[in-house]
Write a sequence for this structure.
């Protein structure tokens, strides 16, 4: 009766998933807003984007916001905004999407990776200070897979060493750390707003800060048409007004801005629904062998907001060493949809882009092209990052509270845990399918 579906038994889940995983939610109001912008033929202007930036400032409590064409360019602007330049270093967690740090190459700077904490899967503040040198200009903190990073500890270290903090909020828009909005704790927040993220409005990104100089440098870098002498307050930038300092044009598309203005009105209430569904699911699977929920303590005022790409902590020892790939395969076979896959982003330092690739024909790897030392040697202590994939599985990302469906999904998890022994024979794991870099090919082990 409880034969696993992967081994030929009945699927546990009988209810159709319906629209529970559909995202973003697009209504007539989004359609009208986009059509209105289209009919005004304003696609290349900035009016709707400026209105969206005001909405964002109001929502986050930031003084300044700058809409961009994607999150990668928002991060690029944030790095330039913090003064990162040739020969400088930024520090970034070893496990994140590549866009958290890769733009530094274009600034002639490099990246030093810091290990992650095995529970939060965020930059481990205990390992941060050792990575700071006199070249460090900024720390990129990622609130990875919706879990707020340890900002108090990180800010204390950053302030002590006079290093700027960039919060990459691409996984956690609207999330809170001890009651404070993510992206407003460091010197500057930057986020992707592309359709896969929890705050989704097409291809777009945003940077926000209370620091006028960072804001103006970001404008100078990628928004030449807004870089005008009459608006710029930073003295050394004034003589350069109007010039495209970065050589980039990062303007947000007006159709995205129009959609974003509608999305932001409903975002908090939609997140509250996601929150209710995800917490209910985690309560149901909490205590099953082989897994631990990875969620913040809500009583501290921290939240998971949109629960983007959230993962569970996998404990294979409690399931006889069952591989996470076999485990997730068995869960999916029970009829569980919503992206239950093994692993997370592969550690960046293990990829050739951060080891050997000579992107700009320097005759040496780009990672060290402008450095006075070989920062790759500092990658030798990233042990948690290197082992995290096999201890990680993605949770189904529910967008609505459908009690019956969520209970069926939890039941499918329970069924697999109770019958794990049937999965052990022949299980060799499938390391090639533990996470990925999203379009980065993986150096296959020989
Ligand atoms: C998606 C993502 C980005 C990049 O955003 P785009 O809008 O895709 O350019 C940056 N950082 C993280 C952590 C991301 O997940």
């Amino acid at each position: 009766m409880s034969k696993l579906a992967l081994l030929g038994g009945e699927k546990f889940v009988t209810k159709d998933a319906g629209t529970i995983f559909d995202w973003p939610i697009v209504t007539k109001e989004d359609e009208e807003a986009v059509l209105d912008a289209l009919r005004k033929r304003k696609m290349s202007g900035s009016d709707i984007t400026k209105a969206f930036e005001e909405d964002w400032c109001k929502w986050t409590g930031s003084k300044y916001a700058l809409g961009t064409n994607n999150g990668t360019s928002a991060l690029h602007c944030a790095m330039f905004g913090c003064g990162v330049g040739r020969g400088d270093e930024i520090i970034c967690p070893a496990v994140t999407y590549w866009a958290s740090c890769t733009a530094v190459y274009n600034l002639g700077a490099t990246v030093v990776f810091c290990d992650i904490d095995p529970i939060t899967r965020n930059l481990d503040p205990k390992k941060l200070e050792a990575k700071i040198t006199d070249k460090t200009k900024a720390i990129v903190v990622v609130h990875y897979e919706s879990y707020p990073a340890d900002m108090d500890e990180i800010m204390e270290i950053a302030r002590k060493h006079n290093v700027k903090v960039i919060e990459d909020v691409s996984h956690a828009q609207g999330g809170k750390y001890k009651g404070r909005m993510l992206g407003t704790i460091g010197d500057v927040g930057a986020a992707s707003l592309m359709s896969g993220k929890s705050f989704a409005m097409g291809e777009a990104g945003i940077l926000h800060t209370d620091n006028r100089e960072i804001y103006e440098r970001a404008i100078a870098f990628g928004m030449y048409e807004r870089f005008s002498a009459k608006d710029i307050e930073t003295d050394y930038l004034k003589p350069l007004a109007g010039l495209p300092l970065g050589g980039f044009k990062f303007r947000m598309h007006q159709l995205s801005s129009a959609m974003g203005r509608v999305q932001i009105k409903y975002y908090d209430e939609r997140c509250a629904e996601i929150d209710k569904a995800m917490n209910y699911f985690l309560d149901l699977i909490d205590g099953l062998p082989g897994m631990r929920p990875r969620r913040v303590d809500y009583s501290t005022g921290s939240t998971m907001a949109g629960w983007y790409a959230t993962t569970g902590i996998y404990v294979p020892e409690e399931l006889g060493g069952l591989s996470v790939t076999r485990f997730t395969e068995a869960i999916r076979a029970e009829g569980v949809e919503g992206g239950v896959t093994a692993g997370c982003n592969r550690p960046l330092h293990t990829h050739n882009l951060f080891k050997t690739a000579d992107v700009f024909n320097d005759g040496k790897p780009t990672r060290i092209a402008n450095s006075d030392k070989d920062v790759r040697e500092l990658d030798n202590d990233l042990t948690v990052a290197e082992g995290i994939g096999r201890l990680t599985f993605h949770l189904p990302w529910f967008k609505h509270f459908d009690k019956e469906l969520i209970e069926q999904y939890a039941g499918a998890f329970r069924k697999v845990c109770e019958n794990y022994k049937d999965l052990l024979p022949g299980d060799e794991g499938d390391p090639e399918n533990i996470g990925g870099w999203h379009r980065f090919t993986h150096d296959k082990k020989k």
Summary: The pocket of pyridoxal-5'-phosphate is lined by residues 70-72, 75, 96-97, 99-100, 142, 168, 170-171, 192, 194, 205 (CB under 6 Å).
